[in-house]
Design brief:
Elements (H helix, E strand, L loop, with lengths): L6 H25 L4 E4 L3 E8 L11 H18 L7 H24 L2 E6 L8 H23 L1
Antiparallel strand pairs: 1-2, 2-3
């Protein structure tokens, strides 16, 4: 039996995820004037302004990236009813939407995305980036498992 998620719960989850992302970014902008090492030479909290997208691509192209976000959100809204209405898939979709909106808010308000999670061997990222990656990987994994089961 496939468990479904109500639209109200979906919206509530998305809003909570966006709030967590925005709170962590506010804390980063407010308190990370200097990096805070958490695991020596491996992981630190360090405020960074990201004007590009993944791995620094399109650096400085904020207006193009804003339009890209709007297109992605528009496509999600347009295809929302065609997306499987089962709990896991909708939760992963909420993660993707929260990630896009979280970074979209930063771009509109500040002209850059606030990043602060620094593993030193990887570009600095934020909670919204985690949401996006988890949502996409989750949906892909679910689709692969569904195809293998059929």
């Amino acid at each position: 039996m496939v468990k479904k998620i109500s639209s109200l719960l979906f919206i509530f989850l998305t809003i909570i995820l966006i709030a967590i992302d925005q709170l962590t970014k506010l804390l980063a902008r407010s308190y990370l004037a200097h990096p805070i090492p958490l695991i020596k030479n491996l992981f630190q909290l360090a405020f960074a302004k990201n004007t590009g997208i993944a791995f620094g691509f399109f650096e400085g192209a904020n207006s193009i990236i804003v339009w890209l976000y709007l297109v992605v959100l528009g496509l999600i809204i347009f295809f929302y009813d065609r997306f499987p209405n089962e709990r896991f898939s909708r939760i992963m979709l909420a993660f993707i939407i929260a990630g896009v909106i979280g970074n979209f808010i930063d771009r509109i308000v500040f002209g850059y995305v606030t990043d602060f999670l620094d593993f030193r061997i990887w570009p600095v990222f934020n909670i919204a980036d985690i949401y996006l990656c988890a949502g996409v990987v989750g949906i892909i994994a679910k689709e692969i498992l569904r195809k293998e089961a059929s």
